[in-house]
Specification:
A hairpin with a 2-residue loop joins strand 29 and strand 30. The protein has 19 helices and 38 strands. The chain is 27% helix and 33% strand. With 672 residues, it is of the alpha+beta class. The radius of gyration is 27 Å and the shape is globular. The chain folds into 6 domains: 100 residues, Rossmann fold; 70 residues, 2-Layer Sandwich (Dna Ligase, domain 1), CATH 3.30.1490.20; 128 residues, ATP-grasp fold, B domain (D-amino Acid Aminotransferase, Chain A, domain 1); 124 residues, 2-Layer Sandwich (D-amino Acid Aminotransferase, Chain A, domain 1), CATH 3.30.470; 131 residues, Glycoprotein, Type 4 Pilin (2-Layer Sandwich); 72 residues, Beta Barrel (OB fold (Dihydrolipoamide Acetyltransferase, E2P)), CATH 2.40.50.100. It binds ligand MV4.
Length: 672
């Protein structure tokens, strides 16, 4: 085994690799961008090297900078994690060329699997079932059209170098083929520098089932059973589980055998995943092979009780696989839920910001059946430059229902505030009857979206009372500091006069709760208050302790709550739930709020990747004007109404701040 390992990644995977490497007795070197100087993975490693500015292209994707960091720190091996350079054959080669060990497969395997056409041809030859389709060299429209006809519509046109759903179009009939091919080719050229396409039969509502494989450099290969990763949105996985639920046993075995055949066909070494589409016709088809460890490897670790990073390091050091096929057993059921900094209410828009509060449940009582992997801690900023993953919650159960129940319980005990997350969305999935029934396929989120987004109801009276107490008990000193920091003149914390109430004075606290406004008249009563809540009066009192916990007395019941503030927003965490209210400054209320600009501003900081219109362009409502990229996702800024583009303020490649006006726009209504 080598003595020193550089981890060419960040976030939870970098922390996770450091943990295993240290446990094995290796020294660890982290790398970091200028945005990550204070990140957890840097603190976790023995040493750390700065590899460049915040944008990933200048740091975590900079091959030369990373190889140089490895040289400088005298690391002997490099673990790529996942994402970034993990499946970049040039990186694997550069590492090897520098005389270091690349903890991953041979560059040739990465390269072959990076091209869907090449991969399909290899798998077909190895007897692995592939989706019926055309993956030949001929790329003219006539050839693709003939192929589509033969396959039968609907077909899917995919970029050979594609990934993450980019450069992919469903084509329902021959008339739509030409435009779809042109669009795919354009996207593929722009995103992957290669316009080659393939055509496949389009399978509706398939399940995404994948098999974990592992091979060593001595010709041994094993599979570590399957996972279902069907619950995705925008091609980002949200929930993964192992084993896949409700697969006929024979089919499961066939899939595992096919995955092993795939690994052997390319002389695979290391951790790999063979992805299949499990179609409604009850058959499975090879989709692609991922030549890396995956985010969801954790559920397999729980299932077979193994440390797959330790396996990777052993294989990279030339050792044989730690276990043979017969020594691997799948026990129980494991589920992973990914906590993202994103807003499900706004089409899962990634959100940066500061994690004002981030508390995880004490896992000691779970006796190893719950694991939470994270790369951040309370108080950290979530940079907008990278993937918005905050944490992975992984649970194990003797049976799937037990795992589902445990997942619900653990999610209920997580506290996050300061950053918008999908936590409530995950809770809703964990509580969903269709999920409990194992009825999952790639259409799950779309099909159940309305129910999963079920808006928070009006704050329960007791939550409202806690919000009032937070305001009344001053939270004073700290709140005023927060207001000064936020420099928000509208912040109610600027209201210092008359804030302490006289016994006989009546003060009204006003909150915005969702779309509604709620006013709570307050009177002093002895050492506490009398709150006139919508349902009636409630005696309330309490104190805020040194740790910032609100210890409340609500009508005689003692309750511990956490209330975190950002500007005028209060997030109350209590009773296993969370509710956000906005405190309204009466003065600001009287002045009236201005309507926000009509969607032509950047909804988050990011990079302009496409400008679809020129000044003077006439556009219809809904037309894409500008495409922004942030945290690995693209967001179209669309026309709010029919109108004319007056001026475009940015060009592709420009970085924009949140709220920046992207273009000026004349709306037909206004000018009429
Ligand atoms: C498909 C498909 C249906 N039929 N191929 C999505 C991303 C890329 N890895 C391949 N994907 C798909 N390929 C055929 N022939 C449906 C998808 C697909 C999908 C696959 C797995 C998980 C989620 C998905 C969501 C939408 C579409």
């Amino acid at each position: 085994m080598f003595g020193k390992l550089l981890i060419a990644n960040r976030g939870e995977i970098a922390c996770r690799v450091v943990r295993t490497a240290k446990a094995l007795g290796l020294r660890t070197v982290a790398v970091f961008s200028e945005a990550d100087r204070d990140a957890l993975h840097v603190a976790a490693a023995d040493e750390a090297e700065c590899i460049g500015p915040a944008p990933a292209a200048d740091s975590y994707l900079n091959i030369d900078a990373i190889v140089e960091a490895a040289r400088r720190s005298a690391a002997e091996a490099v673990h790529p994690g996942y994402g970034f350079l993990a499946e970049n054959a040039d990186f694997a080669e550069a590492v090897e060329k520098a005389g270091l060990v690349f903890v991953g497969p041979p560059a040739g395997a990465i390269r072959a699997m990076g091209d869907k056409s090449v991969a399909k041809a290899i798998m077909e030859k190895a007897g692995v079932p592939v989706v019926p389709g055309y993956h030949g060299a001929g790329q003219d429209l006539a050839t693709l059209g003939k192929a589509a006809q033969k396959i039968g519509y609907p077909v899917l046109v995919k970029a050979c170098k594609g990934g993450g759903g980019r450069g992919m179009r469903i084509v329902e009939d021959p008339a739509a083929l030409k435009a779809a091919v042109a669009a795919c080719r354009r996207e593929a050229r722009a995103a992957f520098g290669d316009g080659a396409l393939l055509v496949e039969k389009y399978l509706s509502r398939p399940r995404h089932v994948e098999v974990q494989v592992f091979a060593d450099s001595h010709g041994n290969a094993v599979h570590l059973f399957d996972r279902d990763c069907s619950i995705q949105r925008r091609h980002q996985k949200v929930i993964e589980e192992a084993p896949a639920s409700a697969l006929p046993g024979r089919l499961r075995d066939e899939m595992a055998e096919a995955a092993l055949a795939a690994a052997r066909a390319i002389g695979y070494v290391g951790a790999g995943t063979v992805e299949f589409l499990f179609a409604e016709d009850g058959r499975f088809y090879f989709m692609e092979m991922n030549t890396r460890l995956q985010v969801e490897h954790t559920v397999t670790e729980m299932l077979v009780d193994a440390d797959l990073v330790a396996w990777q390091l052993a294989v990279a050091a030339g050792e044989t696989l730690p276990r043979r096929q017969g020594e691997l057993e799948a026990a129980g059921h494991a589920i992973e839920a990914r906590l993202y900094a994103e807003d499900p209410e706004r089409d899962f828009l990634p959100c940066g910001g500061r994690l004002e509060r981030f508390r995880l449940p004490d896992l000691d009582g779970y006796a190893g059946s719950v694991r939470i992997d994270t790369g951040v801690r309370e108080g950290d900023d979530i940079p907008i430059h990278y993937d918005p993953l905050i944490a992975k919650v992984i649970v194990w159960g003797e049976t799937r229902p037990r795992a589902v129940q445990r997942l619900g319980r653990v999610l209920a005990d997580i506290q996050v505030a300061g950053v918008v997350t999908n936590l409530d969305f995950l809770r809703a999935i964990a509580a969903h009857p269709a999920f409990a029934a194992g009825d999952v396929d790639t259409g799950f989120i779309d099909r159940h979206l309305a129910g999963l987004l079920a808006r928070e109801e009006a704050a329960p009276e007791r939550m409202l009372a806690l919000a009032c107490l937070e305001v009344l008990l001053g939270g004073a000193a700290e709140a005023r500091r927060a207001a000064l920091r936020s420099a928000d003149p509208q912040s109610p914390w600027h209201l210092t006069n008359g804030w302490r109430l006289n016994e006989d004075s009546r003060h009204v606290l006003t909150f915005v709760d969702g779309a509604a406004e709620v006013a709570v008249p307050v009177r002093y009563r002895g050492r506490g208050f009398l709150l006139e809540l919508p349902s009636g009066p409630m005696a309330a009192g309490g104190e805020i302790d040194d740790a910032g916990t609100l210890i409340a007395d609500l009508a005689g019941t003692r309750i511990q709550a956490t209330v975190s503030r950002q500007g005028s927003q209060l997030t109350v965490i209590a009773f296993g739930t969370r509710h956000t209210l906005t405190v309204v400054d009466p003065a600001a209320l009287a002045a009236g709020q201005e309507a926000p600009a009509a969607g032509l501003t950047a909804p988050m900081p990011g990079k302009v990747v496409q400008v679809e219109v020129k000044p003077g362009a006439r556009v219809r409502r809904g037309a894409t004007l500008v495409v922004l990229e942030a945290m690995k996702m693209e967001h179209a800024i669309t026309a709010p109404a029919d109108g004319t583009v007056v001026e475009v303020h940015f060009r592709p490649g420009d970085q924009v701040e949140e709220g920046a006006e992207l273009l000026s726009f004349d709306d037909d209504e206004d000018s009429a």
